[in-house]
Specification:
Blueprint: H1 2-15, E1 34-46, E2 50-61, H2 64-84, E3 92-104, E4 112-126, H3 132-141, E5 146-153, H4 158-182, E6 187-200, E7 207-208, E8 224-236
Antiparallel strand pairs: 1-8, 2-4, 2-5, 3-4, 5-7, 6-8
């Protein structure tokens, strides 16, 4: 039984095309060479071009049905106002809906339900960051009583990340050259490269129950750094 299981596997492997040696990663050091591993980080900075706000409506009522009904009407008003402000349907997404009871506890008897609390929150994206204050005013005026954000980000970050990778590789190479000179050697080739990346997003946050007559909120986008970290293995000879 053992040979009958192995033989077909051996035949199948023999039928596979041979892998060219050039396609394999060469990690064997030349005689007398030194293996050097360098970790380097490169960063690219961009001005954020996308803002995301979480807008919620929280309502309370004696019954669950009343809390939900009031919440639905208030949220419908918020959504209509967002669309009038120019926010596209694809940039408005429901993030959470909840309904739970409120209790009264006096410590001597079982908790008693005093009413119900309904919550509905949407995530709103927009690309005109300068309009953040105006959109916040619209949300509050139409019944949003819980605001989270804005979170600022870079919508298309691929070019910036490639710039960060290029800088990380250049930094790794420069460091390897420094070590090589100190050792009386030279960098002959790269044996391996692996990447870990990180994006640092400053997040100005605002959680509020605010009055409808609040003034426009100024938002300063600043800059955000996108960084790439490379681990590069060099051969020094």
């Amino acid at each position: 039984m053992k040979f009958r299981l192995i033989a077909p596997l051996a035949l199948a492997c023999a039928a596979l095309p041979a892998t060219p040696a050039a396609a394999q990663v060469e990690t064997t050091l030349a005689p007398g060479a030194t293996r050097l591993q360098v970790v380097a980080t490169g960063e690219a900075r961009r001005v954020p071009d996308l803002a995301t706000i979480g807008a919620g409506v929280v309502t309370t009522a004696p019954t669950a049905a009343a809390a939900l009904d009031q919440n639905s009407r208030q949220m419908a008003s918020v959504l209509a106002a967002l669309k009038r402000a120019g926010i596209a349907d694809r940039d408005i997404q429901t993030s959470s809906v909840s309904l739970f009871p409120d209790y009264r506890q006096d410590g001597t008897s079982p908790p008693q339900i005093t009413g119900y609390r309904a919550s509905n929150e949407v995530s709103v994206r927009f690309r005109d960051i300068a309009a953040t204050g105006r959109i916040l005013d619209v949300l509050v005026a139409k019944g949003a009583n819980q605001i989270n954000g804005p979170n600022l980000s870079i919508e298309n970050s691929d070019a910036a990340m490639d710039e960060a990778r290029t800088r990380a590789l250049a930094a790794a190479r420069a460091r390897a050259e420094l070590y090589a000179r100190a050792l009386g050697k030279r960098v002959t080739r790269v044996l391996d490269v692996s990447e870990g990346s990180d994006v640092s997003y400053p997040r100005p946050m605002m959680m509020a129950r605010v009055a409808a007559q609040s003034p426009g909120v100024p938002i300063a986008p600043g800059e955000q750094g996108l960084s790439a970290t490379l681990t590069v293995v060099f051969e020094l000879d």
